[in-house]
C-alpha cells in the first residue's frame, strides 16, 4: 500500500471569521496533498500534486501553506503517522554564548548537517540576574559568578532546535564543557573548533528533556509574559529577511556567513512566523506596483523566516547592493557574488528581502522588532 501521512490541521478562515478543521493527507511518493473538511464531512481539496510541502515540514506545531491557506498542524491524524514522523522528535535549547555570536553561520551549518532544524531563534542580551536565573542549578558552584558574568557580557542567540533525539545530538555536537578535555578527546566537536576555555565554550545545550522544556520556556514563553528582549537598536539600520523558502532549504547558515564575511554587522536577529495579514501589511507599498505582490505575500507567510537588523552608517544602500537585483537570474549574470545570485531561485524565492529606501530601514526593523515582537 502507498505511504500516506495524516494530520489534523486548523485554518483561520478570515471571511467567515471561523477556525476550520481539516484532515490533511500527504503522499510522499508524488508529493501530493488532500484535504477533508472535518465539520462538514466532505472532501475539501482533491488529491493534488503540490510542490511546496516537504515531509520535513510536517511536524506538530508547524505551519504549512497549502494553496495560500496557512494550516496549523495540531495533531497527528493516525498512529502510523505519529510513529513514523513523531516518535523521536524532540525540542532542545541551544544558547550561543557572547564571544562566538559572529560564528553563528558556521554553527548553523553544523546543526543542519546533523539533521536538526532551527524552529525558533532570538538574539538577546541577558542582564546579570536573568543569566543567574538561567544558570540557577549551578548557584553553589565555584565558577558560578564568572559564568553569569560572561553570559551577560554581550548579546547571545537562543535557539530552539528540533529533530530526532535533538537534545542528545546537540550535546554530542558540542562536546564536553572542559576546554582541554574537548580538544584532546573530541577535536571535531563544536567546542573544540570554536571554543577558548571551560567558560568560553561556544554554547549551552539542555541536558535533559525537562531542562529543555524549562529553558525553552525561559526564552520563548508559551504564554504572553516577560522574556528576554531583542537587541534591535532602531537607528542607522536596514532590514533583511531570510525568506521562508531559504530557511526551509537550510540556507540560513550560508547566508549569515556571507553577510558577516562581507563586513556587515548584525545587531538583531529573530525568527518570525508571519501571519498572512501581517505579510500583506508589510508589503503594502508593493501592492499594485509589483506584479508578484500576492506571491510575495504567500512566500513570506509560508513558514518561519529569519529577520535581521543590519547596523551601520548609510548601510541601507550598500546592503541593498550586496543583496543584488531582485531577479536571481539577472543577478547571476550581472552580480554573481550577491546574495540573490548565490541563494535565490526565482523573483519570489529570491532568498532575501532587503529594505528598498534608506528612510524605510528603521520602519521595517520596527515592524518586526517592535510591533510583531511586542
Ligand atoms: O555546558 P554543559 O552542560 O556542558 O556543562 P555544565 O557542567 O552544565 O556547566 C555549565 C557551564 O559552566 C559550562 O558550559 C561552562 O561554561 C561553565 N563551567 C566552568 O566554567 N567551569 C567548570 N568547571 C564547569 C563548568
Ligand atoms: Mg549543563
Automatic annotation (TrEMBL):
Belongs to the NDK family. The lineage of its organism: Eukaryota, Metazoa, Chordata, Craniata, Vertebrata. The active site is at 204 (pros-phosphohistidine intermediate). Component of sperm flagellar doublet microtubules. Component of the gamma-tubulin ring complex. This is Nucleoside diphosphate kinase homolog 7. Keywords: ATP-binding, Cell cycle, Cell projection, Cilium, Cytoplasm, Cytoskeleton, Flagellum, Hydrolase, Kinase, Metal-binding, Nucleotide-binding, Nucleus, Transferase. It comes from the Eukaryota. It catalyses: a 2'-deoxyribonucleoside 5'-diphosphate + ATP = a 2'-deoxyribonucleoside 5'-triphosphate + ADP. Its main location: other. Major role in the synthesis of nucleoside triphosphates other than ATP. Possesses an intrinsic kinase activity. Displays 3'-5' exonuclease activity with a preference for single-stranded DNA. Does not seem to have nucleoside diphosphate kinase activity. Functional component of the gamma-tubulin ring complex, implicated in the regulation of the microtubule-nucleating activity of the gamma-tubulin ring complex in centrosomes, in a kinase activity-dependent manner. Part of the dynein-decorated doublet microtubules (DMTs) in cilia axoneme, which is required for motile cilia beating. It comes from Salarias fasciatus. SMART domains: DM10, NDK. Pfam families: NDK (PF00334), PH_NDK7_N (PF25364). One of its GO terms (molecular function) is metal ion binding. InterPro entries: DM10_dom, DM10_NDK7, NDK-like_dom, NDK-like_dom_sf, NDPK7, NDPk7A, NDPk7B, Nucleoside_diP_kinase. Residues 1-89 form the DM10 domain. One of its GO terms (cellular component) is axonemal microtubule. It is found in: Cell projection, Lamellipodium; Cell projection, Ruffle; Cytoplasm, Cytoskeleton, Flagellum axoneme; Cytoplasm, Cytoskeleton, Microtubule organizing center, Centrosome. GO terms for biological process: CTP biosynthetic process; GTP biosynthetic process; UTP biosynthetic process.
Amino acid at each position: 500500500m502507498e505511504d500516506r501521512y495524516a494530520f489534523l490541521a486548523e485554518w483561520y478562515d478570515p471571511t467567515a471569521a471561523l477556525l476550520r478543521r481539516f484532515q490533511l493527507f500527504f503522499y510522499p511518493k508524488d508529493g501530493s496533498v488532500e484535504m477533508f473538511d472535518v465539520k462538514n464531512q466532505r472532501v475539501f481539496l482533491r488529491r493534488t500534486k503540490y510542490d511546496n510541502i516537504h515531509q520535513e515540514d510536517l511536524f506538530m506545531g508547524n505551519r504549512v501553506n497549502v494553496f495560500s491557506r496557512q494550516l496549523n498542524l495540531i495533531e497527528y491524524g493516525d498512529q502510523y503517522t505519529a510513529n513514523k514522523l513523531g516518535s523521536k522528535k524532540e525540542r532542545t535549547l541551544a544558547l550561543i554564548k557572547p564571544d562566538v555570536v559572529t560564528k553563528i553561520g558556521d554553527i548553523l551549518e553544523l546543526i543542519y548537517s546533523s539533521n536538526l532544524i532551527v524552529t525558533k531563534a532570538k538574539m538577546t542580551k541577558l542582564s546579570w540576574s536573568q543569566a543567574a536565573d538561567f544558570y540557577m542549578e549551578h548557584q553553589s558552584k565555584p565558577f558560578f559568578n564568572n559564568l553569569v558574568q560572561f553570559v551577560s557580557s554581550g548579546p547571545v542567540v537562543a535557539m530552539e532546535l528540533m529533530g530526532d533525539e535533538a537534545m542528545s545530538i546537540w550535546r554530542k555536537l558540542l562536546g564536553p564543557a572542559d576546554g582541554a578535555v574537548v580538544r584532546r578527546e573530541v577535536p571535531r566537536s563544536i567546542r573544540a573548533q570554536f571554543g577558548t576555555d571551560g567558560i568560553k565554550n561556544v554554547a549551552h545545550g539542555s541536558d535533559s528533556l525537562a531542562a529543555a522544556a524549562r529553558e525553552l520556556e525561559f526564552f520563548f514563553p508559551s504564554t504572553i509574559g516577560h522574556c528576554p528582549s531583542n537587541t534591535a537598536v532602531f537607528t542607522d539600520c536596514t532590514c533583511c529577511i531570510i525568506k521562508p523558502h531559504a530557511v526551509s532549504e537550510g540556507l540560513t547558515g550560508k547566508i549569515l556567513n556571507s553577510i558577516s564575511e562581507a563586513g556587515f554587522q548584525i545587531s538583531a536577529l529573530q525568527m518570525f512566523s508571519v501571519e498572512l495579514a501581517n505579510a500583506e501589511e508589510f508589503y503594502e507599498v508593493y501592492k499594485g506596483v509589483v506584479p508578484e505582490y500576492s506571491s510575495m505575500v504567500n512566500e513570506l507567510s509560508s513558514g518561519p523566516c529569519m529577520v535581521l537588523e543590519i547596523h551601520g552608517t548609510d548601510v541601507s544602500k550598500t546592503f541593498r547592493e550586496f543583496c543584488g537585483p531582485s531577479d536571481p537570474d539577472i543577478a547571476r549574470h550581472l552580480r554573481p557574488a550577491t546574495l540573490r545570485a548565490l541563494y535565490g531561485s526565482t523573483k519570489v524565492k529570491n532568498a532575501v528581502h532587503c529594505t528598498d529606501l534608506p528612510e524605510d530601514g528603521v520602519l521595517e526593523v520596527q515592524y518586526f522588532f517592535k510591533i510583531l515582537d511586542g
